[in-house]
Design a protein that fits this description.
Elements: E1 2-8, E2 11-16, E3 26-35, H1 38-47, E4 57-58, E5 62-70, E6 82-85, E7 88-89, H2 95-98, E8 109-110, E9 122-126, E10 130-132, H3 139-142, H4 145-158, E11 165-169, H5 173-184, E12 189-194, H6 197-206, E13 210-213, H7 221-229, E14 235-240, H8 245-250, E15 255-263, H9 275-283, E16 287-290, H10 302-312, E17 322-327, H11 331-339, E18 347-351
């Protein structure tokens, strides 16, 4: 079968590889749609494989597909079922896993890092990682369930309330999904912040009620924009989804007294926080939340069943977020173009069976 394996920084190769072995308790899935995660781009551009000593592995972890074969002992699925899958691989044995806190697993890993992932025609995974899909939900939409679950996991942690005002810093795919998630959770006002006007247009299409064009050369522009929109109050919930050292500091200045700040982005660099912003934690009595992955009790947990239900009811729609669709055959060129910043991307999806013209 065809699959894309990561050999090193800027070294992703589409190759012919053996079909996955279906072990007892596992399910073979024919991949229908698979997306690029922001973490994929960071590994491609800066970091390379997490465990290079394991050799090149099939990459990718945001996907949907159809059950092709079930292994011995599998009882919940049959050939032809539509599924997505949680890519997380907790140990289920450490102190955190035993409490159902799987996102805190001592040895938590994901597919594509320690076992083959989904940039391929087929993938095999344990039965417990699969999530069933109603056939009314398209494979294209279902490929974005995993990153949306990341947002839901964070919002469940901070116990967001209907009527809250929310600011989302950074309008890449995770930020756009956070906007849709906040809307489903009942946000009254959603303020989207980014340095690119094009991304703010995407944010409005996803449900942002207000937008703030931040400026690279004006550190306080995000805060001032939010204060203007909220008449000097600030917001109840702040979501950092930009994943940069600057935005990771700026978000501390956007909340009202007692606001909740949720970090979803991953800044691959050291963060310097101006004193005025850092003091907001104490002086405004902020509560800071970190959210990692998308797994909770009842593995993979409530975010997964919730996102599937909202998709089925039409309360989530990822169409404005998906900007590019390619056959899997073009994956090398697409990653290279993204690295060279030749195109402005939202969410990129690959289709192993090809893209309908």
């Amino acid at each position: 079968m065809k699959a894309a394996r990561l050999y090193g920084k800027q070294d992703l190769r589409l190759e012919e590889v053996p079909m996955p072995e279906v072990k007892p308790g596992e399910v073979l899935i024919k991949v229908k749609a698979v997306g690029i995660c922001g973490s994929d781009l960071s590994r491609y551009t800066k970091l390379g494989p997490k465990f290079p000593e394991k050799g090149p592995l099939v990459w990718g972890h945001e996907f949907s597909g159809e059950v092709a074969e079930v292994g011995e002992g599998v009882t919940s699925y049959k050939a032809g079922d539509h599924v997505t899958a949680c890519p997380a691989l907790p140990c289920f044995e450490c102190e955190y896993c035993k409490k159902g806190e799987y996102a805190r697993c001592m040895t938590l890993e994901v597919i594509g890092a320690v076992r083959d992932g989904a940039f391929a025609e087929y993938i095999a995974l344990p039965e417990r990682n699969l999530v069933p899909l109603p056939k009314s939900v398209s494979f294209e939409q279902a490929a974005l369930i995993e990153p949306t679950c990341v947002c839901f996991h964070g919002l469940y942690k901070l116990n967001m309330q209907p009527g809250d005002d929310v600011a989302v810093m950074g309008c890449g795919p995770i930020g756009l999904l956070a906007i849709q998630s906040a809307k489903v959770f009942g946000a009254k006002r959603i303020i989207a912040i980014d340095i690119m006007e094009e991304k703010l247009e995407w944010a409005k299409a996803c449900g942002a009620t207000d937008v703030v064009l931040s400026k690279i050369d004006d550190y306080d522009s995000a805060r001032n924009g939010v204060l203007d929109v909220t008449n000097g109050r600030g917001v109840d919930v702040v979501i950092e989804s930009g994943g940069t050292p600057v935005t990771s500091a700026q978000v501390l200045g956007l909340g009202c007294k007692g606001a909740k700040v949720l970090y979803l982005g991953i800044p691959y660099g050291d963060i310097t926080i101006p004193r005025e912003y850092f003091e907001k934690i104490g002086r405004s009595e902020l509560t800071i939340y970190g959210a990692w992955n998308a797994i909770q009790q009842g593995f993979p947990g409530k975010p997964w069943t919730s996102v599937v239900a909202f998709l089925e009811k039409g309360m989530l729609d990822f169409s404005p977020i998906i900007t590019h669709r390619y056959p899997l055959d073009e994956i090398e060129e697409v990653f290279k173009a993204n690295y060279e910043r030749k195109t402005l991307f939202g969410k990129i999806l690959f289709f192993p069976e090809g893209v309908e013209k």
